[in-house]
What does this fold into?
Amino acid sequence: MKKSARKTLVAVLLIVAGVGFLIYKGVSETGVYYLTVGEVVGADTEGFSDRGIRVSGKVVDGTVEYNQRALNLKFTVRDLADEEKTMKVVYTGVVPDAFKPDVEVILEGSYDRATNTFHAKTLLAKCPSKYSKEENGEKE
Amino acid sequence: MVNFGNLSQVFAFIFSLASMALILTGLMKNDARFLESGRRTLYGLALFTTLASFALGYLFVTDNFQVEYVASYSDRALPMFYKVTAFWAGQKGSLLFWAWVLSIVTAIVVRNTRTELKSRNTPYIYLVLATTLSFFLFLLTSVSNPFDLLDFIPRDGQGLNPMLQNPGMIFHPPTLFFGYIGFTVPFAYAISAMVVGRLDETWLRKTRRWNILSWVFLTIGIIIGGQWAYVELGWGGYWAWDPVENASFIPWLIATAFIHTAIIQERRNIMKVWNMVLIVLTFVFCLFGTYLVRSGVLQSVHDFGATGLGGYFLVFITVVLFGGIYLIAESYNDLRSKHTLESYLSRESTFLFNNVLFLAIAFSTLFGTIFPLISEAVTGNKLTVSQPFFNQVNTPLFLILLLLTGICPLIGWRKASADNLKKNFLFPALTALAGAVVLFIAGIRQFYPLAAFSLSIFVAVTIFNEFRGGTIARSRMTGESPLTAFPRLIYRMRRRYGGYIVHLGLVIIVVGITGSSAFKLETQGTLSKGESIKIGAYELRYDDFRGYRDRNRDIYAATLSVFKDGKPAGTITPERRYYVNAEKPTTEVSLRSTLVEDLYVIMPEISPDKEITLKVTVNPLLAWIWIGGTLMVLGGIMAILPNRKKKGAL
It folds into this structure.
């Protein structure tokens, strides 16, 4: 009986170890850093950008350019707290319903320090109305 | 009506406290009269929550916008149907709904056990139910009152979020809630069994139907939620590992594990500790699910506003969790099994492994959901994970689970013989292998889809073998033709065959998920009238555009002709809708669904000169997810159909 209990324990431990490994691997291979515009522009993001980063910021009014034919969107985004810190954003694809000037957006992609441009692969816009926590937009 | 609703809630709360007090007194004085009054008080409680719920419904229907909750989720233009369902659109109404349904469920339990009051554990069952109810009623009468008034009367309400104006939304939250609430009953039975030390499988037998019924509701809720997301949210998928989706999936996983090992305990009298742990965890995560949806700790599509409710929920969840752990530890010696596992190759072991896997998936899902919080607390960095994490971690676990779905029901008890293995698994394994080879030759070269399809074949063949073998045996024994024998067999042994049907549903879902995720096509483009967009075998030509007013919204619709392999295949009309009370337009999905594949079109942009931007997705085999889901639900219901003699024995 003791032997069988040990057998079970060994099997369960193996599974637990396997799952632990999967989770560890999952985090290290798919985890992305969630930063503010200020952090991206100001800090050393070398280590962060291999897999891309996620950034939240606010769309600056009067900077939005959209070419519907090419589905090409360009705008400037600023830090939520600090208006001085901005970067340019380039995005190709469908623009979410809630996107407009002064709205809070969440971008995922990579940052090019030389041109201060963020190449967004995904764009989420937060709705400013009473559904304040709701996100609406493109998911993969 | 506002006062009436308020008063009803307060009375319900008082009744819940009174019931607890009476039962406790009865237990201490060992006086059946107190217990009986405590029991009856629970009926009164159900009456008052019902009155309160009707009051809230009435306020919605009569557009009483002085009530803050009504003003936040309804407006005059809202169709009557949605006015009624706006009841549970927000946190406060959802909590009232919880309390209402739980009080009805409690009344049913109270009625079914009316002759069992002498049994020592029955009062404790009532006590757990009454305590849970008083928690919700406390919230309703204090921090989260749906009858709270504004200090002015707005001319109109703010309206219901257009995304919630969809038939799927009528059933999704209540079915999920039914599932969450239903698990309160087995939890109450488990706690009472531990308190009085009646640790045999009686509590499992008595709550089996509640377990499966709650599981069925959770399943329906999750599937409807997926379908709602698919047809309403317009991003082309049905599951995004969103925190709230996860919050409903975690209790489902644990409950599913529990239902499986409950069978083992009934049959072999082992895994008693394990089952107690599982039911406590299930209930904890049902509460956690309710809490996540309605508190705003994590950002999510479902999160319609945040309040400071979280603290109370966390306290209650902690009490439940630690109370459960304490009781399990106290009764650990009595719960420990005399028998243990004898071989890896046995039904007991494979069930144990299936359980570990269910819990592993539940854990990794929970981990990923709260990871941003952990990461920030531990490292100060906000490292987040999203869909890729869940897919990467859970896919291999699901595949092993799928394999076990085929093995568990057929492998021998205690120690499987070589004969048993050969008889049950040789043919399915060979078929699966052959299937894999065929698919490989047909061009499916990625590992996961190949493994998923081939394991699906394996499980499906084992199930068909069981159906076939059973039918042949019955038809030989009774002389019925196989066509008569088959349905009768299934009905006669519906508990067993209901389980097989659930498994078959799962296999079909796996096929649908694999097809639609691994072989999905996607394209986007902008068209002027007359232009076309191509995707796979399809070509869509933009023919016509129109705009019109419909009730509480303006609709702009484009008509496109669909051609498949060059042949006409109907039309498709994606829309954009501008609801009167919403700041932003919504995208209405246009869907052409067949058993082979779904053509899924949204129109996110219309230019002033009526150029339209389209996003087009082709999702192969996706419809099978809904078919498999339906089958799962039917199988579950079949497994709990009552015997004809004992009517209504829930």
The CA atoms of residues 7 and 92 of chain A lie 55 Å apart. Residues 128-140 of chain A have pLDDT under 50 and may be disordered. The beta strands of chain A are 32-36, 53-59, 65-67, 72-78, 86-92, 104-112, 117-126, 135-137. Chain A touches chain B through 48 residues (CB under 8 Å).
